[in-house]
Amino acid sequence: MANVAKKVSWSGRDRDDDDEDGRAGETTPLLNGSGPGAAGSGRQLTPSSFLRIGQLSNVDLNEDIHELETEVPRQRPNEIPHNEKLLSLKYESLDYDNSENQLFLEEERRINHAAFRTVEIKRWVICAMIGILTGLVACFIDIVVENLAGLKYRVVKDNIDKFTAKGGLSFSLLLWATLNASVVMVGSLIVAFIEPVAAGSGIPQIKCYLNGVKIPHVVRLKTLVIKVCGVILSVVGGLAVGKEGPMIHSGSVIAAGISQGRSTSLKRDFKIFEYFRRDTEKRDFVSAGAAAGVSAAFGAPVGGVLFSLEEGASFWNQFLTWRIFFASMISTFTLNSVLSVYHGNAWDLSSPGLINFGRFDSEKMGYTIQEIPIFIFMGVVGGILGALFNALNYWLTMFRIRYIHRPCLQVVEAMLVAAVTATVGFVMIYCSRDCQPIQGSSVAYPLQLFCADGEYNSMATAFFNTPEKSVVNLFHDPPGSYNPMTLGMFTLMYFFLACWTYGLTVSAGVFIPSLLIGAAWGRLFGISLSYLTKGSIWADPGKYALMGAAAQLGGIVRMTLSLTVIMMEATGNVTYGFPIMLVLMTAKIVGDYFVEGLYDMHIQLQSVPFLHWEAPVTSHSLTAREVMSTPVTCLRRIERVGTVVDILSDTSSNHNGFPVVESNPDTTQVAGLRGLILRSQLIVLLKHKVFVERANLSLVQHACLPALLGSDHSWVSLSWMSPLCSLCSLC
């Protein structure tokens, strides 16, 4: 294509390594450069072993490809030119369509009915394992964050209480900022220098993977470890982030690793689930992992299935729906059981997700028909604020791509944001005079500061706490718990802090910050309505905090169906389904008028060739020749070995697949298309020297298996490896 540029990718590398399943990268000699020993060893193959080469689901390309890998040093210019209108050469497509060549069909015919039933049972076992491990990872994150964050807040609270009495609160500010910056520095270091693809929530990368785009390192075990450690350190470090979004990425990595039965990071092959070592099967399990991650994060198994359908998978079928729902339910149950035992209530399954919005009582917080227009207006406000958030983050991300692309600068920026976040929180708490009685409140770390005895600072409830607990407090604290000025200042400051934080080189999500911003201005909206209506009972601040949270999150991420169900399941109240749906639809419509959603925007900024559900409206008049480059790199059914090696070694044609055409002596006629052969298949042929002599070419046309002869005039027969095209009759 003409509009292609090479640029920085999510992984932060100028190379394209292999994923967790051992797929080949772009830096091997035959995968963009020739090298000695490319043809590999000259092992003699029997017909049975030769057939095994064609069984692509069982071919272990690790052995053949890892021997060819070379390391390319990172090149980091001072400024990276960027144009989001261009596509990147770094991304290749995954092979979601099975290569239905002769050997693949023979392999499928050998599988009887009992074997297919065994394969189906293994699918259910894998989905159960995905749910269990995803739930356990979520438990680990929640328990560690709760203990470390509690320790930090207790230390800072004791220090503030001590210096409030005798002066010198600047030392408390320094302690808070230093603790935050130190913890975030560790989290940013491991992401920037060990696995850059673990930065952010990981949802854009998983969307691309399920769309069919190969993102380097996105489903590797090392990515999972860095993701889990990074999100713990980010939340404990006090950044305006949440731990729920990265659970989707974590669940996807778990699913990819289990379904393949091996790990590239550990260099271990457990020799299990070999039938599923193909991109088609792996894609389905990654969809289940993403749904299990949503289910563990919000306690919403149905919402997880709908999220995987709406935001993730581009391929879907009826059987997949039930398996994904099964994995989601197992994930929620595992998390619920472990956390209940941890909290000392083994038989009280009251912790279905990492965040629980609490029970919304329909009798006390119901809504009336006259409130529907008010909810729609809140959706409009959420859409406008979401569009503003996305636009600011867009220009900030462009600045980062151009100037803050070195790992050391990325770590410094993360530390700066952590210190600024602590400073802003301290100054806001220090300047606030909003004091509330501590009796009957559920504040975890009440700060008295300059309030009277028996009172606490209300601003500290929002800033001096983890974001998840702050959201729940805004939902359920009784009326009068917050001064309108407190909510207004918190909304303004936290909006810009969250916008600045998203895109840092740390593992973090945007779900909880969006909910917190929306809950703050939604509660402020409810207080204003209560003043205007002389304290009417229907103007409950907690109810409007919920609607504001939905509006803000919908305006940023532009999710409708799945987010509606997630909010319903998280609140445990179906009554709010209709107003939440109206709010989300309005926020999406209004936000889309100005700018696209946050995830789609970051996918575009990385120049990923992402295919949306609908084609552009002007694409119906385009033909293939208008978007393809010429001349087309293709191979004949019987091709010289030297020609194949030259094509694979050519850095200007780093394609993963090549069309196979019919040899035509008459050059005036267009060669007929006979199929497609993958780069990985060509590597297997060259590695095992599956060649034929020039004298035996006439035999190849009558035999399926070419002779295994090695000479200076060898040819490669591609007819048995290339799948037949459905348009062969028209060629």
UniProtKB/TrEMBL annotation:
An example of a GO molecular function for this protein is: chloride:proton antiporter activity
Q: Which UniProt keywords apply?
A: CBS domain, Membrane, Repeat, Transmembrane, Transmembrane helix
Q: State the InterPro entries in the record.
A: CBS_dom_sf, CIC-7, Cl-channel/antiporter, Cl-channel_core, ClC
The transmembrane segments are 124-145, 173-194, 224-242, 285-308, 320-342, 372-396, 485-504, 510-532, 544-568, 574-595
Q: Which CDD domains match?
A: CBS_pair_voltage-gated_CLC_euk_bac (cd04591), ClC_6_like (cd03685)
Q: How does it sit in the membrane?
A: Multi-pass membrane protein
Any single Gene Ontology cellular-component annotation: lysosomal membrane
- According to the UniProt record, where is the region Disordered? 1-44
Pfam family membership, one: Voltage_CLC
Protein localization: Membrane
From the Swiss-Prot or TrEMBL record, give the protein name: Chloride voltage-gated channel 7
